[in-house]
Amino acid sequence: MESPADSKLETHTKIELDRFHPLFAIPDGDVILAAKGGEVFFRMHSFTLRMTSGFFKTMYTLPQQNTPTPNDVVYTDEDASTLESLLRMICGLPLLPVETYDQLDSLLFAAEKYDMPGPISILRLQAMTPSFLEDPFRLYAAASRHAWDAEKSFSSTRTLAYNIHDLALRRVLQRLSTDALLDIFQLHHSRREGLRARLNEPPFVPGTPTVCPSCNAKIDYHTWRELKYKIILEMDARPLGDTILESGLLEWPESLACWESKCPCGRLLYDKAETLKAIRDCIDELPKSL
Ligand SMILES: [Zn+2]
């Protein structure tokens, strides 16, 4: 991230009036901010900036710069739209809609750079509005970066509908810090491994051959082993587990083979209803969020 100190403070003698943003052309403003490229200018009171930004507070507290003059221009790296959105937030003006994650990220980046807690809190609320909830990995990335615990927990649950090994997710995962990446991998992995361990314990049938209590015939539970394998593969693809419960256990060939398995004496090897309930209980007990 660029250091705020990189923003340049210069003095200009004259800027044409039509280059000022109409909402930020305050005649008695004592500081001018320039958007990236120097095409749009924003004149406002340095008091507002000092009160809402740690960066500007420090800037105007430095001995040599504590009295801004009306011609001071601070050149920023933010585009005009990002700067306008940010200034509207700190001035209490109606907010511009934030509709994409790229906009949200640019605004968060700038608000962080200028140490503006007010805009960060507004953006945090916006991140939980419906348009952003459809991309849980980007919400998770933003929440992790800003230590928004509730949003991190919420978005981590939403990621469970995705295969974290899918190459399509690579770009968004690359945005995560190592800790955030390891955390989300751990959550997904722990659900798969947790379920795998539980399916090898009672009330599920053992992995080793046993004897039918009715006819003493030797029973091998290979159909259950194959279904378990299918379940674990599905947990990798979608650790939420909903597809296992809602369709997999009713429709997969491995499931049907289990429910139809019989001992030579005619006894069904598996109680379908009890097994479905037991698997549902196991999935319900798995960790759901960070
Ligand atoms: Zn039998």
Detailed description of the structure:
The chain is an alpha/beta fold. Among the domains are: 1-97, 2-Layer Sandwich (Potassium Channel Kv1.1, Chain A); 188-285, no CATH class. Helices cover 50% and strands 9% of the residues. The protein is built from 14 helices and seven strands. The chain has helices at 46-52, 54-59, 80-91, 101-113, 117-126, 130-133, 136-145, 149-158, 170-174, 178-198, 222-237, 242-251, 253-260, 272-285; strands at residues 8-11, 20-25, 31-34, 41-44, 72-75, 210-211, 218-219. The strands form two sheets. It has a five-stranded mixed beta sheet. It has a two-stranded antiparallel ribbon with strand order 6-7. A hairpin with a 6-residue loop joins strand 3 and strand 4 (41-44). It binds zinc ion. The site of zinc ion has 8 residues, from loops.
